[in-house]
Amino acid sequence: MKRNLRDIAIENSDEIIQEWLKEINSLKGLNYTADISKELFESNNSEFVDVIFSSIKENGSAKIVKDFSEKIIHLGWPLSYITDGLQKFRSVTISTILSKLDRVDTEYISEVLNDVDSWVEPIIRQLVNEYSVSWEHVVSLQRVALQELSAPLIPVMDNITIMPLVGTIDTERAKFIMENLLEGVMRHNAEVVLIDITGVPVVDTMVAHHLFQATEAVRLLGAKCILVGIRPEIAQTIVNLGINFSQLPTKSSLKKGFILALEITNKSIVEFDKKIQGMEELLGTGKGSEVSHANTDIKTT
Questions:
Q1: Which CATH code fits 154-265?
Q2: Strand order in the sheet with 154-157
Q3: At the top level of CATH, which class does the domain 2-147 belong to?
Q4: pLDDT tens digits for range 282-295
Q5: Which of 163, 151, 230 lies closest to 190, judged by CA?
Q6: Mean pLDDT of 106-115
């Protein structure tokens, strides 16, 4: 019976395909494929149904299904397109086979349902698995990329580095911040690290605890942390939580923190007048002309 039902499906493949194409086209606006061009949609539909029949003829060819799934995933098509298409194929095939049988009773219907399920379900499992593996890989890569971007340590000048933090800090990210911070202090030979929390929306007990641990670890390496970006609401939260930051210098802005970092590293910002003579060579203003400029520089004391 199983071979006969398979033969019936293959012999009537043209009829099944035509009916299936009508059904799948009716779903174009419902399974997130509405923005796909008509030509590409029809082309992939034809390939999709060919893959299904090829798998049925070859008793579940994994390579054919895998190649098609890789193409669909690469195009960014939704998983709902796959599942809807296979469910429609299942219902159309069952209806077609039943219409071709001379005798239809409960036993025959049950046999048809079981057989068609045995053709379709392996394809569904394989396609869903391919999607799952692909998306897990994408998510893994994105997680790594976000981690690398979420806690950069930027050297701004000799012995001074800045770590700008943006977004929510959870336990996993706090661990990465700690590792990146300690590694960066050693790599850049930093004496002062400015941790900028301007972009951190919430500072609760857990976040404050992680920040305190990070600054203590940096202190053990012989460097010093300055916490900058303390907004009024964060300051109020820290006070209400009873968090002791007395040993950690804090500033409301990065600018103020940077000035403090300069003082700690025996540097200062000074203004000076710079007279440039012989400007005729640069500006063509004539021989002996003289221009005075006010400028700033960083002086090591």
A1: 3.30.750.24
A2: 154-157, 160-166, 192-199, 224-228, 250-251
A3: mainly alpha
A4: 555 544 444 444 45
A5: 163
A6: 82
